[in-house]
Write a structure and sequence with these properties.
Elements: H1 17-20, H2 29-44, E1 51-55, H3 58-66, E2 71-73, H4 79-89, E3 94-99, H5 109-117, E4 122-128, H6 132-140, H7 159-165, E5 170-175, H8 179-191, E6 196-201, H9 205-211, H10 217-225, E7 228-229, E8 247-253
Parallel strand pairs: 1-2, 1-3, 3-4, 4-6, 5-6, 7-8
Antiparallel strand pairs: 5-8
Length: 254
């Protein structure tokens, strides 16, 4: 991209401009997360050459396709499992793994728990797109034949509470609307040499339009923008259920 008077944007060397054209739907929160992540790398003073990114399937996997950073798009195994192994082999690198429902709560929870308990220096950015019911049916195959996946849209894990119970040193949840708070939170986590997880609530536009009757990206933005900020909320109360209030904040920083 070009700035004013033809000046190059500081992030130009880090972005594959041609890959961004059709990476995500207009208004998708994943693109926002990528933008904020690059800002956070600069704010944290992290050398991009010291980063290693991993991502798996689906829309979240396109993040590594769009950035000129050392990375791996993992499709033959769990992205989190690969990231953990890479960190063990390259302890000096800062490893960041982008997870979605398929890579995380449908398949990768066991490995997540193991790495958190082992105090691995990994930053997990989990983009919660609210597509678990689809993943559960189409990918995980956990729903018995003849049972509608839309009879229950509850999520199986309270992510912040799970992370805290496993000993994660940095735990936070934001939305794709709370970009400033997300940016500072990512900067903090990038500086921290400990296991960290940040959940970003960014409902999928296509899924929400079809099953939640949210037809416009603006309406989705307004809904998640009303999230309640409470750093001191008891983590047992952080479950995300359909229709419940979304609570955001930084719940641990040690």
């Amino acid at each position: 991209m070009q700035g004013r008077r033809g000046e190059a944007h500081p992030f130009d060397p880090l972005i594959k401009s041609e890959a961004l054209l059709n990476a995500w739907c207009p208004g998708c929160g994943i693109g926002t997360v990528v933008n904020v992540f690059l800002q956070s790398v600069a704010r944290a003073g992290v050398d991009p050459r010291e980063l290693f990114l991993a991502a798996g399937m689906g829309c979240t996997g396109r993040i590594v396709d769009s950035l000129n950073l050392e990375s791996r798009k993992v499709v033959d195994e769990l992205s989190f499992e690969y990231a953990t192994r890479y960190k063990n082999d390259h302890p000096a690198r800062k490893v960041v793994v982008f997870l979605n429902d398929a890579d995380f709560i449908a398949h990768g929870v066991d490995r997540f728990v193991e790495s958190a308990r082992a105090k691995s220096d990994i930053l997990v950015i989990y983009i919660n797109s609210f597509i678990y019911p689809v993943v559960q049916y189409e990918i995980a195959g956990l729903v018995p034949a003849g049972l509608s996946i839309y009879e229950s849209r509850e999520f199986p894990f309270n992510i912040p509470h799970l992370a805290l119970s496993c000993g994660a040193h940095y735990v936070a949840r934001w939305t794709a609307v709370h970009t400033k708070r997300l940016s500072f939170s990512l900067s903090d986590a990038l500086r921290l040499q400990k296991f960290s997880i940040i959940e970003v609530v960014a409902p999928c536009l296509m899924y929400c339009a079809k099953h939640y009757r949210i037809k416009e990206s603006l309406e989705r933005t307004e809904r998640i923008g009303r999230a309640k900020l409470n750093h001191d909320e008891v983590t047992e109360n952080l479950d995300i259920r359909r229709g419940d209030e979304i609570i955001i904040g930084r719940f641990r920083h040690t």
